[in-house]
Amino acid sequence: MGILIGIATLIFETGIVSFNVQLTLHFCFVTICVFVAGLVGSWFELSEWHTIWPVFLIEVIAYIIIWILIWLLTKREVDEINNLLQNRKRG
Fold first, then answer.
1. Which of 55, 64, 79, 91 has a CA-to-CA distance to 38 between 20 and 30 Å?
2. Number of domains, the chain
3. Which domain holds residue 61?
4. One Pfam annotation, family name (predicted)?
5. Where do runs of H (alpha helix) occur along 41-52?
C-alpha cells in the first residue's frame, strides 16, 4: 500500500490541474487503498458500516489538517515574495 500511495503523490508533480484537484484525486486514490487494505486486514467489515466511518473520518481529518498547513505555508511564502518585490520596486 505504501508504494501505491507513494506513486499517487506523483500527481503533485504535474502542473496540469490546480492543487485542490490534485489533492482531491490523491484523496480518492488513498481512500481506495485504505479501504482495500482495511478489507484485507479486517479493520472493518462492509456489512457493518459503523466500523468503516472511524477509518474514513480519521482520513478526512488528516487531509483537512494537511490542506490547512500547506495553505498557510504557501500563503506565507507568497507574502514574503510579494514583500521582496515591493521592496525592490521602492529601492
1. 64
2. 1
3. 2-90
4. DUF3021
5. none
Model's pTM, two decimal places?
A: 0.71
Q: What is the pLDDT along the chain (91 residues), one digit of tens a residue?
A: 778 888 888 888 887 888 889 888 999 999 999 889 888 998 888 888 888 888 889 999 998 998 899 889 999 999 999 999 999 888 6
- List phi, psi (to 5°) of 62: -60, -45
Q: What is the dihedral of CA 48, 51, 53, 56, to 10 degrees?
A: -120
Reported as half-sphere exposure (CB side, CA atoms, 13 A), residue 88 has a value of 6
Task: Please name the amino acid found at residue 25.
Answer: L
Q: Which of 54, 52, 67, 65 is nearest to 21 (CA)?
A: 67
